Amino acid sequence: MTTESTATTESTMATETARGQQTASTETLNTKDMRRILASSFAGSAIEYYDFMLYATAASLVFDKVFFANLGPGFALFASFVTLAVGYVARPLGGLIFGHFGDLVGRKKMLVLSMVIMGAGTIAIGLLPPTAQVGMVAPIALVLLRLVQGVAVGGEWGGAALMAIEHAPQKHRGFAASFANAGGPAGAILGTLALSFFAAISGSQFLVWGWRVPFLLSALLIAVGLVIRLKVSETPAFQRLEAASEKRRVPIVDVLRHSKRAVLLGLAATTAFYVCQAMTTVWGVSVAVESGADKNGVLNIKAGAAVLTLVMCFVSARLSDRFGRRRVLAFGALLGIVAAYPTVLLMTNGTLWGFGLAIFIGNGLVQGVLYGPIAAYVAEQFPTRHRYTGASLAYHTASMLGAGFTPMIITGLTLAAGGALWPVAAFWIGILLVAFVAVRATPEGTRRDLD
């Protein structure tokens, strides 16, 4: 090829690239393909988080009585929260496994597989006999099935977020990625309402069979989710990576070599909203009921707060596209710092209005503001070749530390302090301060080229 033809080719490529960038800047999310992609991210995450968060609610109200009743009330609840934490411990492992193959063979295949695995684990929990019938086999099996759930949801978030963000135009990436996150509260709403409904109709039989039905209904939801998910195409960013045919390292090696700082800052920022979630929707539910609030009322209020979380997730994601991820996340952290102690007091006053106000502030507002931009914030810190692995590692390690260990930590703090609540609020404020510092130390990714 002559020098002239080479120059012509390079000029043509540059023109096409510029034209592509110009087109991308004027694209919207209102196309048939993008609507299908966003629906897939939202529905898939909602279904998987229905399964995952259904377990969290059952851990607060059911499992201590069904699988750990022989330990006494306080220690039974602690043991139940330990099994809850097991799922969060497994999430980084799931993120690494699914992230590895998602970065090498594609996002879509891993999303389908994660949904099948999650459904199988959840249905099996619904069929698990109590400790009174099979002895220690029951709690051991419960822990193993929770591990399965954790691995599955560890693969879900990264894939769902990347499917949205890697398909979306640059100026709408935050809002697009929020559909994957919004599936979380949507699934929590569905799971909480299902458990509340069957608690009401089963009455005294709730601990016998009522709690099991929402777990078994997962089979229907998984079938619907697979139909939606199988219609979505692979992301353009991954297709470009494959077309480049460059030699790629093992993704986790690439992450540890080039993106350690991004992982640590993303982990610190993400932990904040997971602590908000655990404080209000797991520990808060448990202490509200123990303090005298009506169980069904608490569950219904929790579902209402999740609606506000869902709305705030979309609103804050939109704002992050306009003002930047860092500003919105920093605001959410400061809002949580101010609200932490009053929220803890309200959750424990034994009334439905107190619990309602607390969860609407802590879960609906604070968590909602932090939740909306977080998917784009984390994903934008990593290049395509190891984005699934890097983003999943940061996000799910935060979920393990924030949501998995917080109920145990809070329960331990209250036991050690003789019931005093100030250590609980201090813990919450400390986590939010760390998140604020991490966000301010992170480069803004709103206008970053994903490739």
TrEMBL record:
The keyword Disulfide bond is annotated on this UniProt entry: no
Coiled-coil zones: none
Superkingdom of origin: Bacteria
Positions of transmembrane segments: 42-63, 75-98, 110-128, 140-165, 186-207, 213-230, 262-285, 297-316, 328-346, 352-372, 393-414, 420-439
Keyword Transport belongs to the record: yes
Keywords assigned: Cell membrane, Membrane, Transmembrane, Transmembrane helix, Transport
Membrane association type: Multi-pass membrane protein
Segments of skewed composition (Low complexity): 1-18
Main subcellular location of this protein, as a coarse class: membrane
Region Disordered, residue ranges: 1-27
Name of the protein described by the UniProt record: MFS transporter
Residue stretches making up the Major facilitator superfamily (MFS) profile domain: 37-443
Cellular location(s): Cell membrane
Organism: Sinomonas flava
Cross-referenced InterPro entries: MFS, MFS_dom, MFS_trans_sf, Sugar_transporter_CS
